[in-house]
Amino acid sequence: MLSRMVVVAFLHPDLGIGGAERLVVDAALALRRKGHQVHLFTAHHDPTHCFPETTDGQLKVTCVGDWLPRSTCGRFMAFWAYLRMVYVALYLVLVSDLAFDIVFVDQVSACIPFLRLKRQAKVLFYCHFPDQLLTQRHTLLKKLYRYFLDTLEEYTTSLADCVLVNSHFTASVYHETFHSIRASPSVLYPSLDFDKFDKYSSLTLHDVGLDIDDTCMFLSLNRFERKKNLNLALEAFKLLVERSEKQQSSINLHLVLAGGYDPRLQENVEHFSELGNSARNLGIADKVTFLKSPEDKVKVALLKAAMCLLYTPDKEHFGIVPVEAMYMGTPVIAVNSGGPRETVVSGETGFLTHQTPEAFAEAMENFVTGKNKKKAMGTAAHSRVVKNFSFIQFSEHLNYIVQGLMDERKQK
To answer: What is the pLDDT of residues 104-151, one digit of tens each?
Structure first.
């Protein structure tokens, strides 16, 4: 297929720090390196809380509609997220002078009908996970509210020319959720740009300003959200400490809980405090370090130094952090569900286990009593990532999809 330059507009609700944002940034970089013109549009972009590629000149970002509220007294967040994305879409189509060929939309599909105002453009929607499955419905009013939004989500998703998902697990959930959509989504795994990790690979914890004994350090790296089940890491670590004390072991155990933290988000603020209280109540506060939104170099140093990564979410859609850890030669202990079943090979690159503190503690003990396991599993883990999740593969696949959409447009 003959490659041609394509102008791609990216629409994302909030260019902060997270797995979805990392994928969007990587997708934009991938297409840019393939010779395409890319431009990111978003409703929020904080230069102090974002990926560096969006501020260092590599990617052009336009932020519009941030004056719109994120919620009404802490409620209706989904409604406002939909409205903010519609505003961004209308700005792109009616106000901006960008002559785009393709729009890459993710997370919020409600804006797709408005992108259709430019009839020649193709719409590519990346579904990280159906939004309607990410919320609870406790009251009749909430059920009615979500019924409207869920119906809108399914209808507007069906209007995309191409739908991508982040894993085969998400693809199966997509089919189970959107009954009216017959077309199957394609799987485009998130990837790693190895160069970003390699440039910091020689750094130690001391080099990045962390005074942490890494003799036997375990790491949890996830946003400070309740659905990430971070208490599981604390409770499992507590059991491990108790077992170590019974055996009168001299090994110094330590746990680091690091991850994305946005002070604008009430849940982040509340849950961070809750986790600190949990550590104190469990009697392990002196063995636990909490880090908010670590820089890339800090994250790489942590991943490299950790005995293993504790990945606690259940039914995670994909989970890029286990892939990052494995690339750095660090095995992963994860819940045996969702995306990690496609990235972690249990017994070879880490352990997939039950969602209980006892199961996690037992898996962690393998690394305490047999440190050679990290080296053997880490080597296998690194090889698996290089083979299956490279940025080159991601770029080629995405470019193939984009060129296919252009060829389809040309034939009409």
So the answer is: 999 999 999 999 998 889 999 999 988 776 666 667 877 887 788 889
Distance, CA of 90 to CA of 69 (rounded, Å): 17
Residue of 157, 89, 83 whose CA lies nearest to 118: 89
DSSP letter (8 states) at residue 286: G
Which one-letter amino acid corresponds to residue 30? A
Q: Pick from 350, 347, 276: which is nearest to 309 by CA?
A: 350
Tell me, what amino acid is at 129?
A: F
* Beta-carbon-side half-sphere exposure of residue 185 (alpha carbons within 13 Å): 31
pTM for the complete prediction?
Answer: 0.84
Looking at residue 95, the DSSP 8-state letter turns out to be I
Do residues 229 and 314 lie in contact, with contact meaning Cβ atoms separated by under 8 Å?
Answer: yes
Phi and psi at 162, nearest 5°, equal: -150, 135
Q: What is the side-by-side strand order in the sheet with 7-12?
A: 61-63, 37-42, 7-12, 102-106, 122-127, 162-165, 186-187
